[in-house]
Design goal:
Blueprint: H1 13-19, E1 31-36, E2 40-46, H2 66-83, E3 91-102, E4 111-122, E5 125-134, E6 137-149
Antiparallel strand pairs: 1-2, 2-4, 3-6, 4-5, 5-6
Length: 151
């Protein structure tokens, strides 16, 4: 396993997969850029028509499911938790979703940026505020909680 990502480094798909247990079709962040410890990070998701949820989520008018954007936010936050100063690589579990809002549809061909900012941290628990953006416009937002624990 590669060394943990540190502040201001990026995590490409190989590093994200080394940190998170998720795999296709449940890995919903392709890379994490602009990481500043557990304070701020931006996850990237390239949306393609080949993804399996488009077969059943409005096949005549494919729209990326909002709950999957929330999961992408949580996965971006999970990478941030794993690389946090004083943290040792373990499993990250999604705890809470609050204040979720879906603003605009996301379509195949769009690139989602998950902008995550830490609100609070207590020992092994973190809370983040996130915005999903496409072309600079907010398409979804939420607050998510995560907990790191032994595998």
């Amino acid at each position: 396993m590669d060394a943990p990502v540190t502040t201001l480094e990026a995590a490409d798909i190989a590093r994200v997969m080394a940190m998170l247990p998720h795999r296709y079709p449940f890995l919903l962040v392709d890379r994490v850029i602009d990481i500043r410890g557990d304070e701020h990070g931006i996850g990237i998701k390239n949306v393609t028509i080949n993804e399996p949820h488009f077969q059943g989520h409005f096949p005549e008018n494919p729209v990326f499911p909002g709950v999957l954007m929330i999961e992408g936010m949580a996965q971006t936050a999970g990478v941030m938790c794993i690389i946090a100063p004083g943290s040792t690589p373990k499993s990250v579990f999604f705890l809470t979703i609050d204040k979720a809002k879906f603003r605009k549809p996301v379509l195949p061909g769009d690139t989602i940026e998950y902008h995550m900012n830490r609100i609070q941290r207590r020992r092994t628990m973190w809370w983040f505020r996130g915005e999903a953006k496409v072309n600079g416009q907010i398409v979804a937002e939420a607050e998510v909680g995560a907990m790191i624990s032994d595998r």
